[in-house]
Amino acid sequence: MTDHFTDLFFHEHPPSSVLIEDVQPMVDNGRYPVKREVGDSLIVSADIFRDGHDKLAAVVRYRERGTGVWTDVEMTFVDNDRWAGTIPLDRYTTYEYRVEAFPDVFNSWRDEVEKKHADGQELSSELIEGARILREAKTRAVGDDIASLDTLIAQIEGDDQQRAVDATGTPETLALLYRCRSKADLVQSEPVLRVKVDRVRARYAAWYSMFPRSAGTVEGKSATLRDVIAQLPRIHEMGFNVLYFTPIHPIGTTNRKGKNNTLHALPGDPGVPYGIGSTDGGHDAIEPGLGTFDDFHDLVAAAKDHGMEIALDVAIQASPDHPWALDHPEWFHIRPDGTIKYAENPPKKYQDIYPINFQNTEWQALWKELKRIILHWVEHGVTSFRVDNPHTKPTIFWEWLIAEVQRDHPEVIFLSEAFTRPKVMKSLAKAGFTQSYSYFTWRNFKQEMTDYLIDLTQGPEKEYMRANFFPNTHDILPVILQEGGRPAFISRFTMAATLSSVYGIYSGYEMCENTPVPDREEYLNSEKYDYKVWDWDREGNISDFISRVNRIRETHPALQEYDNLEFYQASDDNVLAYGKRSADNGDIVVILVNMDPFSAHEAQFELPVDRFGLSVDIPFRVDELLTGETFMWTGRTHHWRLDPHVNPVTIFSITPWLHQDYAEPCY
Amino acid sequence: MTDHFTDLFFHEHPPSSVLIEDVQPMVDNGRYPVKREVGDSLIVSADIFRDGHDKLAAVVRYRERGTGVWTDVEMTFVDNDRWAGTIPLDRYTTYEYRVEAFPDVFNSWRDEVEKKHADGQELSSELIEGARILREAKTRAVGDDIASLDTLIAQIEGDDQQRAVDATGTPETLALLYRCRSKADLVQSEPVLRVKVDRVRARYAAWYSMFPRSAGTVEGKSATLRDVIAQLPRIHEMGFNVLYFTPIHPIGTTNRKGKNNTLHALPGDPGVPYGIGSTDGGHDAIEPGLGTFDDFHDLVAAAKDHGMEIALDVAIQASPDHPWALDHPEWFHIRPDGTIKYAENPPKKYQDIYPINFQNTEWQALWKELKRIILHWVEHGVTSFRVDNPHTKPTIFWEWLIAEVQRDHPEVIFLSEAFTRPKVMKSLAKAGFTQSYSYFTWRNFKQEMTDYLIDLTQGPEKEYMRANFFPNTHDILPVILQEGGRPAFISRFTMAATLSSVYGIYSGYEMCENTPVPDREEYLNSEKYDYKVWDWDREGNISDFISRVNRIRETHPALQEYDNLEFYQASDDNVLAYGKRSADNGDIVVILVNMDPFSAHEAQFELPVDRFGLSVDIPFRVDELLTGETFMWTGRTHHWRLDPHVNPVTIFSITPWLHQDYAEPCY
Questions:
Q1: What is the pLDDT of residue A67?
Q2: Given pLDDT bands bounded at 50, 70 and 90, which one contains residue B346?
Q3: Chain A within 8 Å of B407 (Cβ-Cβ)?
Q4: Chain B contact for A81, CB < 8 A?
Q5: What letter does residue B486 receive in the DSSP assignment?
Q6: CB–CB of B242/B205 below 8 Å?
């Protein structure tokens, strides 16, 4: 029945009585790694206990995956049988970790002896046992410790009980016995767990999404990558550090879509960048209208000079003109008549797109080709990828692809456009995606926003999913932006940039572009189907506001963290009050947002000044970071008014007022 | 780095894209079984999904542990990618279960065809694919199904598309294709999980705890097991069905304790029953003063005649006079001078008790002897054991012992006296104890009681821990009983018997015995150290009340369930309002308790009549089960007064008022 008990009886030694339970953090019992960023610490905790009163010791062991040497970090008792230890994470890599616990023989003995000694009991029997423990410890001692143990044994075996007890309790003795301690009856947590350490940009980034062909100034003509270079100062000035392009590859002509998603393109229509592949090449090529690889290299370099990196779009599908369609029809779904199946969502048909069959008989060649494509762009300087519709491809494929790419390129970031059901979205994050699009795009009201953010930043998913907050995308113009106009653009931007540490906008946002296809959450005259020329300085633009918020993010480390969000009570249902703090309260930022873009609201709100490390009865300093105003406030309860046409949002920095009394006696 | 991906590439077939996550119920990722009782159903649920829109199918497979044949139960989609299936649990045994999921090829195809057909699309290509799916299904068909599939293939390959589509959607076709369906690309949940099915007594029982030597009528002399037989009608009349004895084994004389735990016994002092073992024998013997094995057999039989079973105490420790101390000193802790160590909790010493060393070098012989002891009593008719201080012995020992005993005797119940830290208590329950003592004994106030019960009955521990509620034990006379007197005895009894489905009292409770050792939660003149003669009918006794409550438990199946507890809002902080319902609302019991034993309280309370399946505006019937009063109530809000000296508690049975309108036309 319980087979391991039969096995157990073949062992000479009895099983250890130490138990390790509920090791955290852990995702799906170790099936997937947790995620952190370089420079972080990983606090590993577990319930550790055994029967009776004997003392225990425990360590967290960790090593870089694939290397042999474990490093031990001592765990300490926290409370209620919970222990914790901290692993430093100083490399982009995957670390393995596990917990080990074992009886602390020497300290159990010392504890008993001290209590009996304090009670005045005779200890000769206990001291003999102590000497036995020390002799056993000596078998592990090296160098000077051997002599130190001999001295200690002599003291314990001497005639002076007081001296013997004292000798066993000195800091030097404790350190000595720690070095030589026994790990007999050790128990290891199962399975070995993993933490994937990404660069900080995985957690703290501002994405700017654009169609490179719309970066120019000539109507009806493709802009080039060199036109994009000309845009870099503007985008940099706004404070973005990841510049993401919709696909830059050659676009098919067969069944090409026309303007506003019409079924047939007119001459001169450039087609949808997601209809990838033509006689000019496939996923590893650049659409000739955009330029050459030389142009691309210059763009990557110029972006780097502006502190930005380029993110490409990974849309694994093909136009009927893609080289794969000719060379590898077996990678697609084949109809009984031998032709390749186009994309369908019955009864809808998408004749310009061939989906890939990830589980075809030649799947290994296909998967390797897809890996080659990613590595090809990595070699050309791309370090971030936004993946289109990953939820229509097998999760196991992404798990494989991302692991393969990050093995040699741990710096590469994958953003999952997983606008899909919650569990599918989470499974992609578990499988390896560095970041994920989220439902933020559609969360408009106070309660739903609060609930969602508490899930994201305090629920189990905080260990593996970083939600990248986009208030708009080239596919989605949400109703709140259509209806709410400029105040909504300001408040939604502020929430994206301060609720999450990683966020992005799709270009046009800075001009409050919000003309929809009627009754749809889509842009009218979308760039998806056309070239476009923008007036970046058009009236009503919020570029300066964006720039200011990004500067605030840069100067306030609290806003660069993901899971330090906390909400505060506010008396009005349209006023969202929240904040972020650094762990030492050295940086405290509080944000109020009027979620109603139409009318002014005012609210009484509560600041947890005690958690801020402030006194409830001593004034603290409040700097409003958007206007530059400064206030002195006292206590928990405050009041603020937010007018969508004046101040849809407010951002406070809170600092203690430093008292300087006479610290020295004054003569 | 990710080794299984290397392996993956050696396979010809691509990995399945189906994912199974979060299988429930599950304890510590399957390290321990969940617990249920015979006659229950086990609802197994999991998140099951894959990329894209194709349909899936899933089953729960189960089998009796150690047998080879799996039975499949179909899972159905619930919501949000969650699926569930139900396993019937009709034997006392351990079942294994796991989830299997796989693409539903035929229904995915049918869904596509139906949508396209409704849209008026031409389907010849799809029908060729359909015929291919049917031919593949035929490889699994047997009997008449082969011909049925041929007929269906002919219809699909015929000229009439309408007829072809119709033929694929009939109930007969769906059933046929279900029988022949493909499980290609199947995924299995890991690991295989277990459910331990106990008898109903594991969940629904009333324990009566006593010292058999105090069942008599002669002062200063041990009562016998035959005296206990004489008590059975009285105990049965009160409604108890498990009769638990403190240890009945011979008691040591060396360092025997005297009355009221004095250090030295006087002549005639019987000693503590936990000082087990003398020249008369050890754990497998009966203290001669109590009688013989013949007496014991008669007692077991008489108890059975009264619908009761006998539970013995398992206290694994020895008096210095125990045969083990002579024959197996190696099973104990040995001092440097060769003597056996007595029990200590430094600086306290317990010279009358030798603790066992479970991890001595001869541990296997020891463990086997302990197993023999349990099986010895099982052979003598004992089916329940109360285990003393299990938390001072290795959890792994209990896991082994209980599994070994229950392998051949699945009916045996182990109650853990784990009055220890919460995680240790839970680990013993996980390791196999059928029931556990709990902190109920010390939970006196409304909020702490509510919080604790919500944890027990709605938290993860409900899957493996059944808390047996004792308002007192022979070791514990809680302050609330000392101070609160008879009203407290009534309210605490009612809570024990209705908050949990399994509870017990220590004898004397029915007489409201509450004289403490001053400033301690212990009984003065405790039976632990003496013989005692009781006046069972003494004034103020609550035997009739106990009897009545146990009858209510017997006639109300809702009170026989453990995890169906729900709390209701009540306006007074001393009034606890709660209830239990059968799943079909066929039995609804509502209880109000005044937790203040000193003063009357009245409260407005809210009944969730909609969840009760009642209308808010039609009266329902309320029977007060202690007084026999009946009321007609309407709506959610009601009011009640509880006077500790009149009605410290109230128990309502709620039933709908059955309307009988004319159902037939009346001529």
A1: 85
A2: confident
A3: yes
A4: yes
A5: H
A6: yes
Among chain A residues, the shortest Cα distance to B391 is held by A51
Give the sign of the dihedral formed by CA B192, CA B103, CA A429, CA A316: positive
Tell me the residues of chain B between 148 and 207 that have a Cβ less than 8 Å away from chain A: 185
Strand partners, B503: B206, B469
A22 contacts in B (CB within 8 Å)?
A: 28
pLDDT at B84: 98
Contact A356, A332 (CB under 8 A): yes
Could you tell me if the ipTM is greater than 0.85? yes
For residue B391, the chain A residues in CB contact (below 8 A) are 51-52
pLDDT band at A2 (very low <50, low <70, confident <90, very high): very low
Out of B9, B94, B359, the one facing A14 most closely (by C-beta) is B359
Task: Determine the pLDDT at residue B570.
Answer: 98
- Are residues B476 and B523 in contact, defined by beta-carbon separation less than 8 angstroms? no
**Which of B1, B344, B364 is closest, CB to CB, to A407?**
B1
Q: Which residues of A are catalytic?
A: 388, 417
Count of pairs with CB atoms under 8 A, one residue in A, one in B:
153
Residue A667 has pLDDT above 60, yes or no: no
Inspect the interface and report whether the beta carbons of A400 and B335 lie closer than 8 Å: no
Place of tokens 């399946």: B613
Strands (E), A204-258: 205-210, 242-245
Of A65, A121, A422, the CB nearest to B80: A422
The token duo for A211 is 């169609």
Rounded Cα distance between A433 and A446, Å, is 29
The mean predicted confidence, pLDDT, of chain A is 95
Q: Kindly report whether the peptide bond that precedes residue B191 is cis, defined as omega within 30 degrees of 0.
A: yes
Give me the active site residues of B, please: 388, 417
pLDDT tier at B657, thresholds 50, 70, 90 = confident
**A119 at the B interface (CB within 8 A)?**
yes
Q: Is B424 on the interface with A (CB under 8 A)?
A: yes
Predicted TM-score of the model (pTM): 0.94
Query: Per-residue confidence at B110, pLDDT binned at 50, 70, 90?
Result: very high
Can you give the pLDDT at residue A657? Answer: 85
> Are the C-beta atoms of residues A49 and A81 closer than 8 Å to each other?
yes
Considering only the beta carbons, identify the residue of A52, A392, A423 that sits closest to B47. A423
Cα distances from B593 to residues A466, A534, B494, B539, B575, in angstroms, run 48, 72, 8, 24, 6
**B53 in contact with A at a CB cutoff of 8 Å?**
yes
What pLDDT was estimated at residue B666? 57
What the block records as the tokens of B432 is 């196999």
Residue A158 in this model has a pLDDT that exceeds 70:
yes
Q: Tell me how close the Cα of B431 comes to any Cα of chain A, in angstroms.
A: 11
Q: How far is B404 from chain A (nearest CA, A)?
A: 8
Q: Are strands A309-314 and A384-387 parallel, antiparallel or unpaired?
A: parallel
The residue among A352, A371, A88, A47 whose CA lies nearest residue A187 is A47
Mean per-residue pLDDT for B149-166?
94
HSE, CB side, 13 Å, CA atoms: give it for residue B530. 17
What is the predicted pLDDT for the residue at B2? 44
Confidence of residue A658 (pLDDT cuts 50, 70, 90): confident
Asked if A104 contacts A77 with a C-beta cutoff of 8 angstroms, the reply is no
Mean pLDDT on B80-100 = 96
CA A47, CA B163: separation in Å to the nearest integer? Answer: 64
CB-CB neighbors (< 8 A) of B346 in chain A: 111-112, 115-116, 119
Contact B253, B351 (CB under 8 A): no
Q: What is the rounded end-to-end Cα distance, in angstroms, of chain B?
A: 84
pLDDT of residue A662: 61
A403 to B5: CB separation less than 8 angstroms, yes or no: yes
Banded model confidence at residue A12, pLDDT cuts 50, 70, 90? confident
Distance from CA of B157 to the nearest CA of A (A): 13
Put simply, the chain A residues between 134 and 153 with a CB less than 8 A from any chain B CB are none
